């Protein structure tokens, strides 16, 4: 791979898994169809061929079993990377994640490490059926003991996954599936940002627009349109949902005086609510307008013909920007 090659997010994740497996023989990849098929999105394509069936393991269709086995492997010194095939399929394994994986370190008074990474393709925009387009990140962010991250570009997809695998804490790595084929530049020799550090992807002075994962591209498109209308919008890619880099968001809002938070998940009890509350506390005397949130509706994810109405897009986010600037 060229140092500055422009590649898709899917290929960047594949390259990241490959790099981690080459660096550490204790790294294993496991999940439904990850081996011979190479994953339903072909993200793990070629890994079983190169590393063998003992390190790239096709599991039964049993998410609870996948997570439970990964926990056991981690306790024996391995670094398993478990794939959940689609976001909505994670719930049969939810109990293993929140009552075992998240609690093991505290239960052992810090003496036990559980370096498990759970990869979950998430979000909508691919025209899929029920249980294939959900955004459950807030459910896991509420659970102490788990770290939650989501890349928005190829470089972050590559580096953040390796950082997650190399760490000793359980990490849920949410992959924005509708961005799998988006291309961006990857520098394999750069020094990556810290795993839980937010990044300003577009500077601005009138309003701060925060997103993560699949919504970062929408936020950047909104900022471009706003610029044509004479409005300067700063875009912050959160990158990490637990922990959240509130300092970077606060610094931006102290400069702009306005904040709009965007995510695909429902607004009701979503991650945007926590960000809005914290920034209101921290930046009360800097805010020129209430913090606004844009996201999915408090309803089951709709059939594919209606998902464009459900997902926050350019117009809905622009409307929130306009409302915030109108104060």
TrEMBL record:
Keyword Oxidoreductase: yes
Any Pfam family the entry gives: Transket_pyr
Span of domain Transketolase-like pyrimidine-binding: 7-182
UniProt keywords, alphabetically: Oxidoreductase
Annotated EC: 1.2.4.4
Principal EC category: oxidoreductase
SMART domains: Transket_pyr
Signal peptide: none
PANTHER family hit by this protein: 2-OXOISOVALERATE DEHYDROGENASE SUBUNIT BETA, MITOCHONDRIAL (PTHR42980:SF1), 2-OXOISOVALERATE DEHYDROGENASE SUBUNIT BETA-RELATED (PTHR42980)
Protein name: 3-methyl-2-oxobutanoate dehydrogenase (2-methylpropanoyl-transferring)
